Input
Amino acid sequence: MLDFLHANLSYILSGISVGGQYALIAIGYTMVYGILRLINFAHGDVFMCAGLMMVYLSTVLPVTVAIPLVLVMTVMLGFLIERAAYKPLRTAPRMSVMISAIGISYLLQNAALYFTGGLAKVYPAIPWLSQTVTIWGSTTKMVTVVTPILTIVLVVLLTLLIKYTKVGMAMRAVSKDFETSRLMGIRINTVISVTFVIGSFLAAVGSMLYFTNYASVTPVSGSMPGLKCFVAAVFGGIGSIPGAVIGAFIIGIAENVIKGGTSIFGFGGSGWTTFSDAFTFALLIIILVVKPTGLFGEKATDKA
Amino acid sequence: MKKKNKTELWLAFVAIALIYVVVAVLEQTVDSNHIIFTVLKKGAIYSLVAVSMNLLNGFTGLFSLGQAGFMLIGAYTYSIFTMPTAVKVTESVYKYYEAAIKFDTGIFVGLVCAGLAAALFAALIGLPVLRLKSDYLAIATIGFAEIIRAIFQWDVLGPITNGANVMRNYLDLTDVKIPFTDIPFPPTLYVFLASGVCIGLIVLLINSSYGRAFKAIRDDEIAAEAMGINLLKHKEMSFVISSFFAGVSGALLAMYQYTVQAAQFKSAMTYEILLIVVIGGIGSVSGSCIASFLYIAASEWWLRGLDMGKFLGIEAPNLFRSGFRRFVFSIIIMAIVLFFSKGLMGDREISFAGLARRLSRRTKPVKAAKGGGIDG
Amino acid sequence: MAENVLKLENVTMQFGGVVAVNNLSLEVNKGEIVALIGPNGAGKTTAFNCITGIYDPTNGQISFNGKTIVANHPRGKMKKLYAGKNAKEYLTARTVDPTPDMVTKLGIARTFQNIRLWKSMTVFDNVLTAKHMRAKQNVFTATLRLTYKEEKRMREETAALLEEQNLMQYANDLAVSLPYGLQRRLEIARALATEPKLLLLDEPAAGMNPQETQELGEFIVQIKNKYNLTVFMIEHHMDLVMQFSDRIYVIDFGRLISNGTPAVVQADPKVINAYLGVAE
Output
């Protein structure tokens, strides 16, 4: 076991790193689903836009100024999308909102395609994060070490917020029973906006960490990670934040080990690269068939 | 009541026959490189897959997003089956693999097998997946479509699928001949006929007893079960039939494109079809067809200028450059989704009685004001 | 000895900590109109749902015309509760868990407490769709219209059912556009379309005025005789219950507290306390 760890260390480390980045994005999916029962297909593309914003801003501003600006702008983007595309359809059948989300995803990708001209953009190096570090014989970037720590810190902060603040309590109430919460006077619009703000903020942070590792940003950079993070959220139990985080780490690690690690019982190794993506989906199918509510999900209630 | 239906039916037949005549005439008269033929062919193909998706989503209420996967299965099955064996054993297509399937068939058999292959996969996938609640069904079908795509790109299956490489040199639209002769059959008309027959079958299904059962499941499945309709069996039926026709449309797409590659059948394709269904109206077959042609015409033809520097007479090469067309297009889609969420036709079909009423209303404004009444 | 159409034996339905139906045993005989009454929340609709297969009872057995259609033996904690004279049966009994459509096929049809008509369909189609179950066809023959005779028969029978209730005039209107009372009648017509032998009516007179209720009662007797039915109904309208039922079962908090003819039940002090109230 120890030998396996050592031989595959660089893959496991990058797995943990990308797992943390996925976790930050997955939280956005799971929170929005918990409150609105909406699969926010556009979330992955918001993540991509955050990456592009950084690319463009860093050409005119120093990186240290660009970072907070990107955070703010991504949050605004998430907020705007909710207000413009989801709020008007709140009373419409569920399919309509999902279609709207797909439409926004489409719009963001095409906007990015138009503005970038289709060429991949190089992500600027964030000074401290891109330094190389050596751990136990493997070289990697600082971001690999920072990511899991930062992720856990943010998740803890978020959990505290949900447990101990008024807004957090309101969010929990709305996710349990939308109608009653509204009738009890909870300001639904505020709660929903806060959810999107938090989700977008985390996605922006995730984008900074992710693109420091995989330095090229294209208009479709958000779609695969988006889908995978979504699977992570479903796997962990959609609506459950710790579930999303755990799911994301599992997917991140497995994906990397499959891609490049030494063979484990005949699995793994470089012939399986196309399958690292398919692995995520296979995981999805298994969980949906065995336990659709996910690892930490709520039990399905009986028919009324 | 019955009489009105008969008149409507005859009018519908005449109108459809007219469309075919127009297509045939166009094909003989207009230069075959004109963009209108791209629009017509692609529009017909997308009509079929949009109607098949509408059968599943609009009429049975199953929110499934796996269409691209079934189109992929159909396209590949068709191309593998119709590629002449002589070509298969050479290196022109199967460059890195030795072709495993060493027979070939004609076009019609190829199309039918394409549908059957897709239907078979659907039957297998349906069993676990159709028990899921609506959102989870959407997620599961997206997942399956992606897995199917990965499988087709897998190099271990290369001898059959040619892995991630392009499939070509199979029988395509230029190989269609008038039966028992060697005269080439007009390709656009062929696509129209093939799609038309399939859409016709779907319409027959929707108006049959089973179609009513599907609608009952969509409206209230607990009541449907209580009235004796077995949910799993009927949902599976709808899923398999819809996938059959998605497979056929995939095969038609292969015929039209002359080459196919697994990589093009991404989830993005399913979303496109979903958008077409929404624009046309969920639950309306004629809506899906009309929307499909409008969509293709807009994206391939009318908005072309937006990519080429000149649009509607305005010259602005810096603004109108590559990618602008899709950008504008996605804005239009959002506008439709937000403001016209019922789509063009809502859940109704084109009816001549309705059209007649509209036209007569315009010439008799007084009567309309007095009579009031809800639009037909 | 009257023929037993429906028999519930020790049926219990427990949702987590809530016991909705508690050891309910009852019988409905051929040709009877039997009513199930009790305060709101007593477990009446839950009992119906157990009979029709929507719920799988935690314990107990339901038979239809002598044949077991629903059965479940107790597990774990429940086993201890039901140890006693029936314990042996339950240890060897197998589980029978039908889906609602299977139950309907056997000949039990129902209406719903909250009307569940198919919103996008017309009045005619709502009833016609209920005929789908028994039609002799499969998807291929139906699509290719090879079974047009079956379709014709279904349509004629649907028209007859609607005529019977004076609903044929609304045949092409959307089902949900009917006034409430007529929607309830339509639900009954739809249930009849499945050619049942036992008809379960869940609050058929809800929302009706006294005259409509009277007409409904007479109508129920009429169709019972015409189609050779047995009727088991949940109702709150006492005039309907007392005038038209042969026997009544009274439940409260999931438990049976009284049964018998209307006269007996009306006079039963337990029932008066729990539900009926003292007469003025």
